[in-house]
Amino acid sequence: MSLASSMYAGVSGLNSYGQAMNVIGDNIANVNTIGFKGSKALFADILAQSVSNGSSTIQIGRGSILQAAGLSFAQGSFETTGNATDVAIQGAGFFIVNQASNRFYTRAGQFILNDAGKLVNSNGYVVQGYQLDSSGVATGALGDIDLAGVQSQPRASTFFRLGANLNASATSGTVFQSAVNLYNSLGELVTLTISFTKQSGNNWNYSMAATTSSAASGTITVSGGTGTVNFNSSGQLTSPATNPTITISGFSSASNISAAWRLNQTTGGTFGDLTGYAATSVTNSLTQDGYSTGTLKALSVDQDGIISGLFSNGQTQKLRQIGLANFSSPWGLSRVGNSLFSESGTSGQPVIGLARSGGFGSITGSSLEQSNIDLSTEFVNMIQTQRAYQANARIVTAVDDMLTEAVNLKR
User: Fold this and answer.
1) Rounded distance, CA 74 to CA 327, Å?
2) What pLDDT is stored for residue 8 in this prediction?
């Protein structure tokens, strides 16, 4: 081999360590990039050249090359944010986002709702997930997470409890009224007014009337809304011994309300909500289980990636579940920019699943995964690369001096 081969070996070192510095520079430049996964320069020697008639005992290498920039999928640290739709993965897996018919994978969970109500990343790519059935279990095929027009379904009232004191000292004929707000099957507010009329002793007759907030409702009638409540000498309720069932009908579209007035516990005895003490008649508390429809006010994401909504009617409802993907060889994924990866021939096919199942990690809401770059390590790598580059440069200059000596042999 000639001295020129030695010079080219040095040049190969300059090229490979120059490219390695690009890898380090890219890592440092992305130290604050959400979900960024750093790379490490991997070197290999160039195929050796035999200089002894094919003998394997005398082989001289021809320098080095940058063989690969291997990705590191070490876990990044978490940052807590104030955005409920910021999510991070603790463990294995990637979020799935779609742009037109193209599917990408990312660890960056900076998601927001766009103007169409879809959950998207900063590039507008739609996050993929599943719809949930009435039991909160993922169902159907993987698709866009769309929260447009989501509303909380109304619930018809099935019971109510009235906490009140009816004045035992009131004269016969005294009337006291309490109003209870109930809801029909369409979420319409129905006000049930209970009129108590004092009788002899510590006994009161009651009668009920109902009105609605909508003029479109028909003639509202109440069945089972009359009777008598009796109290003993201690002011405790003694009858009725069973819970009256109140039926409200006459709605133009909604189903009838059938609500139990819970005066007595199912295991015996009364709740003690209704009393007959010698004190001013007053309503103390009202409880019922119905509610109207509600609009979406806030979101939250749990460890299973289930997105729940808090609605204006005070109810919480599970809406969607975020899907995850993983690969047999995530190191084979192709970086396509914007913290996105795409499938490649060396990554294998994606395995689609859910958080905390099948080897997938958990999801943390209101959090973001930071870059997994450690600056101290990168600076040490930078120093080593710089020294290696300088050493290879010295090879070139040393070979140049040797060639100069060879030229000067003849003067």
Assistant:
1) 15
2) 86
Strand intervals (E) in 10-86: 39-45, 49-50, 59-60, 64-71, 78-80
Q: What is the pLDDT of residues 137-161, one digit of tens each?
A: 999 999 999 999 898 999 999 999 9
Q: Is the pLDDT of residue 217 over 80?
A: no
Q: Which helix (H) or strand (E) holds 309?
A: strand 306-311
Mean pLDDT estimate for the chain: 92
Instruction: List % helix, strand, coil for the chain (3-state, nearest 5).
Output: 15, 45, 40
Identity of residue 286: L
DSSP 330: G
Q: How far apart are the C-alpha atoms of 261 and 290, rounded to whole Å?
A: 13
Strand partners for 41 = 69
Phi-psi region of 148 (alpha: psi -120 to 50; beta: other; left: phi over 0): beta
Query: Which element (helix H / strand E) includes 401?
Result: helix 375-407
3 state DSSP class of 76: coil
Report the alpha-carbon distance of residue 162 to residue 401 in Å, rounded: 103
For residue 266, what are the contacts with CB-CB under 8 A and spacing of at least 6?
A: none
Determine the Cα–Cα distance for residues 47 and 10; give it in Å rounded to an integer: 15
Residue-range domains of the chain with CATH: 3-74+372-407 (no CATH), 84-152+295-364 (no CATH), 159-288 (2.60.98.20)
Has residue 389 got a pLDDT over 90?
Answer: yes
Tell me how crowded residue 360 is: count the other CB atoms within 10 A of its CB.
Answer: 23
Per-residue pLDDT of 28-66, as tens digits, reads: 999 999 999 999 999 988 876 655 565 556 777 788 889
Report cis status (omega within 30 of 0) of the bond before 240: yes
d(CA 332, CA 367): 27
Q: What's the gap between Cα 94 and its chain centre?
A: 14
Q: Which token pair is 10?
A: 């040095």
Cβ atoms within 10 Å of 181's Cβ, excluding its own: 15
- Cα angle vertex 330, ends 328, 333, to 5°? 120
Nearest to 183, CA basis, from 243, 258, 252, 250: 258
